[in-house]
Amino acid sequence: MQELRWSRWFRCGKYVIEKVSRNDWPDVEYIRPVPESGHIFYDFAELGRKRGARKAEKTYIVQWLLNLDTSKNEEILNFVNHFGLLGLLQHYYGEIAAVTLEGKTPLHFAHKPGGFLLINAQQVADLYLISLEDFLDNDRRQKAFASEPLIVFKKEVEEFQKVGELAHRIHKAALGSGWPLRGWFSAGGMKELAEAADNETLLSEARKRLCESVNRKIQYMRWVLAPGEEGRWSEHTGFDSLISVVYYLLAKDIESNFWCGRCERCNGFFLSSVGSQRHCTRQCEDAARKAKKRQAVKPANKAVV
Ligand SMILES: [Zn+2]
Fold this sequence. Notes:
Bound molecules: zinc ion
Low-confidence stretches: none
Shape: globular
Strand order of the largest sheet: 2-3-8
C-alpha cells in the first residue's frame, strides 16, 4: 500500500542542547539531533493508542507536553529523546512550491492554507541548521537532521500549555464556577467581558477561542481511506508535525468524554474521563491520602497531650 506522507515521525536516538555560533548571527541555543545515535520512524497513530482508556498515563504525549517544565533543559531533552522534535520547520513553512527572483535574491513560495508565504529559503534553512537542498526537497526534509532553536521550541510548548489551561478552565466553568474564565479573560486584557458577562457568555466565548487555537494548528491534517487487511478498510491520518498531532489528540480527547484537570497536590495537568479524579497520578493520590490521614491523626494526638 502506498504510504501516506506525514503519517510517521522521525526521531533520533539522542538529542543535545548546544549553542551554535555563526558569522553575522548572534549565538543561538539549539536542540540538536546526534546523527550517530541512530534514528527511527514511528507511526503517529501509536501516540494516540498510548493514552489509557479512562485516565491518561503521564507518559501520554499530550499530558507529558502539558506538564513539561520548559525552564529545565534536561526535561526538554527527555521529551525529545522520547518523541523527537516538534517539527517546527514543516509546521511554519509547509511545503515549498516554487521559486521567484526578487532582484538577485531567490525567494520561495511556501504553501500556507489558503495561500502562500514568500520566504527567503536560505535564511530559513540556516536557522534550522539544514542545507538548502534538504529544505527545498519535501521528502528529504523530513529525514534531514534539522535542529530547532530552543527559544522557539519553548514558545510553542508554552502556547500549548495555555490552550490546556483554557481547556481546564472551560471544564471548571461548565461545572458552574464563573471565576476561572473571568480570570482568564481579565488576564488576556478583556476586562470588560470578564466583569460584565454571565458565565454562559464567558463559556461560549472561551469555547470559540479554544477551537480557533486548535484549528490553527492542525490546518495541514490529511486523511485517506485505504484498503485494509482481509477485505476490510483502513484509514490513515497525516500531519505536518508533531506539534500538530498533539493539538489534534488533545482536541479528540476533550471532544470525547475526557476533560482537562489540574492536580490538587502538585498542580500538574491530567486528562481523565473519571468525574471524581482529583490528582494527576497514583503517586499524588497516595501522597494526598497519607497527608490527609496524618492531619486526621494530629488533633487526636493533641488531645492525648
Ligand atoms: Zn500531582
